[in-house]
Structure formats: C-alpha cells, structure tokens
Amino acid sequence: MKYVVVVIDGGGDAGTRTPLSLAKKPNTDFLAKRGVVGLLDMKYKGGADSDIGYLKLLGCYSEREYPGRGYLEAIGLGLEPGEGDVCIRGNFATLDSAGNIADRRAGREEEGLERLCRKLDGMEIDGVRFVVRKSAGHRVVIVMKGERLSDRIVPNDPRRTGVPLPQVQARDINGRFTASVLNRFVYRTTKILSEQPVNRKRRFPANTILIRSVGMKKSVRSFRERFGLSGACISAMPVAFGVASFLGLEKIRVRGATGYVDTDLDAKAGALLKALKKHDFVFLHINGADIASHNRQPDVKRRFIEKIDRKVIRVVRSLDDREHVVAVTCDHRTASSPSFRGYEHLTDPVPLLVSGGKTIPDRIERFDEAHAERGSFRIEGNDLVRFMMAKSGI
Predict the structure, then answer these.
(1) How much is the pTM?
(2) Quick one: pLDDT at residue 344?
C-alpha cells in the first residue's frame, strides 16, 4: 500500500465564506465523497507554527524531541550545525527613521537579500562566528558557532509594528552570554544593512533582523523506524526540507517550485508520481495559500486552491484507490480576510479528508471547514499516519 499526504499550507481559514468553501474543486470533493471527512486537531500550544505542524502530520512530534525551528531551517538549507551551535530563524525587517519597526518582513521583497547575507556572513563577536544564509522569502538563517552558547534566550520579535526593536533576553543564567553576543550582532547588523546601496532601491529597506526562533541539534528515530515506510518530501520551503532531513525522508526539489502562488503545480504532480515508484509514503507540501493569507488576499487564495484541485488533486484522484490511501489537509488555518485583526495563523482544528484503501465513505460530500466540523471523526495531528495506515486494511 502507498500513502500520499497533500498539505495545502494555511489552507483552512476563519469565518463561514472561506476560500476553501467558495473554491470550485471537483476533484477534491470527489475524494471527499469517496472517503471520509473530519477534523485534525493539531493541539498547538501558543502559536500555530508550521514546523511543528509538519512534524505532527508525519506522526513524529514530541516536545522532548523537538529541536527548534532554527535548527530545522538550517538543515533545510543544507547547513550542518554541530553540537553546541545555536541556530536561529529570523526575518529581514524594516526600521523607520525613529527606530521603530515599520514592517516585520521588509515588505516581503527579496531584492538584494542574498547580497545582504554575504555582508553579514562570517562576522565574529567574542569568539562567536556567525554563519548567515538567506532562507525562503524574507527569512534568514543564522548559525552561531563558538563556546558557551545556549538556546535559553527569548527572541526579540515583538510580532507587531510601530514599536522599538526589543533586546534579546536570557531565559536563565545559561543564556546570558548568548543573548549579549546576539544583541551586539543585531546592533552591528543594523548599522551595516543601513549603509547598503540596495536598500535605497527597495520600497521597504531590509535594515535590521528580527530574531524569531532558536534551536540546537538533536537526533531522533527516523520516519522509517517509526512506521516501517520509506518516505519522501516534495516542497519548495527550507523548513519543510529541514523536517524531512530531521526524519530521514528523501528531499525532492522540483524545478519551478517557488513556495508562492506561481509555483509549478504540474511539476509537483509529476514529481509525486515519480516518487511513488520509489517510496511507500509521499508528503507533498504546497505553500502558496499561506502566502495569500498573510497578504490578506482571500480571492487569490481561493483561485490558488482551485488551481491545486486542477493540477494536483486531479492526479491524486487518478491513483488506484485499492493501492493508495490519500489524505488532503493543512498544517494550520490562516486568516486571509483584510478585516481580521490579530495573528494570521490560527490554532483551530483543520479539515482533513482521507480516501482509498479500505475506507468506508461517510455522508460528507465536500471538503471545507464547515463540512469537516460536521464530519465523521476528530483525531489528533500526531495520529494521521496511523489513521491512514488503519484505512489500508493492513
């Protein structure tokens, strides 16, 4: 039996007339009619973070084993942090002339960010060397290499604009040195970035870095060791590839896959069919709906979901349902309405459909938030793989 999980990142939404409910998606609804629809409760504590979501969808999350998003982003970029290195996921951001945060993502503009990373890469402060790499979009990965480093720090991202850039704080005595060095790194970085010519060309200058999450190297049992299945991950996002590396899944990069709504979905669907010839389990991650939500563009999100249905779910629907169990879901809901006030990632349970194998259809015939809430089951995120395996009849 083969297993496919299609993850529409941020695909669920808030309210009643959501992009998922308004989208015309005959192939997805066909799978809903042929299978079962319900809720997947990700049991987020605090914010709904995608890296934790991916780990849960793969049945492999525990607080004890979680290495932190900084580490996952770093290995997703192909970096190899050593024992004792501190890994940071940050944002390029914009400070205004008064020193307040004007945009936490530097307008989501990518122009010149690779060059800016090269200006910062290799900086040394008190014996700590900084490795700096551009990640997806406005994101940046920083690896601190040196002695006495600790991940016991509080990031400086205030998650709002119009306020001064806070200091990184130590959680306890172990984090004091790291926090001190990191604050000096941010100070120097702000001076260096403010002097770069590319920032005069950008609508939102990338003139500082927000420290968002940290992590350190950990080792865990692989996906194969846990479930007896060989697996692959198809994505365009470093953090998804980081999760794949962490769990021993093959990372499949697709030409034309961007992580935005312009991503080549035909190429992703082709990569899925190719991966299924080699692997028992394929995790197909599609990110554009999340970006449309963050940009508060519900119509763009709806059209992208319709495109996923035409380009990807149509191919998934064609798989022999006697030999494949497929799931369509998302890692979190994301508020796309311009009228929504608050953090865009939502912790509500997400819609899930499972079809194929020995699945006995329920009476739910559409895939969206409202139908999932009336669905035939509610399971926890960490139980998805086991739930799918149970539907295989094995």
Answers:
(1) 0.91
(2) 72
